[in-house]
Specification:
Number of helices: 3
Mean pLDDT: 85
Shape: globular
Distance between the termini: 21 Å
Number of strands: 3
Strand content: 5-15%
Helix content: 25-40%
Length: 119
């Protein structure tokens, strides 16, 4: 099974309702409450997810007793986190997970900071 990356906004607006715990996929759908539409306004897709991540998300859901419309990665106020991608890049950099080869259009190198991005 090929694991596809989630787009930044898909992750930002991911709710528990989008997670199929039985078939191990995220279903990316529009979120009118937040004004989110999938890419191209019509593109809804399923993204396969590792069973270990599904298990961790199920444990998280059950421990917090969250509603199905709850965001999986909200900000401190329970809203979509606009800084989610930056936070993940910072974590990857400190965990030494960056590829070491990316250079942004501003000349920032992922080997020197949280700038890694797909090529």
């Amino acid at each position: 099974m090929a694991i596809q990356p989630l787009r930044d906004k898909e992750m930002r607006y991911l709710t528990l309702r989008d997670i199929d715990f039985r078939t191990h996929v995220f279903r990316m759908t529009g979120k009118p409450l937040y004004g989110f539409k999938p890419k191209n306004n019509k593109e809804e897709r399923e993204v396969p997810v590792l069973a270990s991540l599904i298990a961790a998300l199920k444990k998280y859901r059950d421990s917090k007793k969250l509603h199905s419309d709850s965001l999986v990665f909200p900000n401190e106020k329970g809203r979509p986190d606009k800084r989610h991608e930056f936070k993940l890049k910072r974590i990857a950099f400190h965990a030494k997970l960056n590829c070491g080869q990316c250079v942004t259009k501003f000349g920032n190198k992922c080997s020197e900071g949280p700038y890694c991005s797909p090529t």
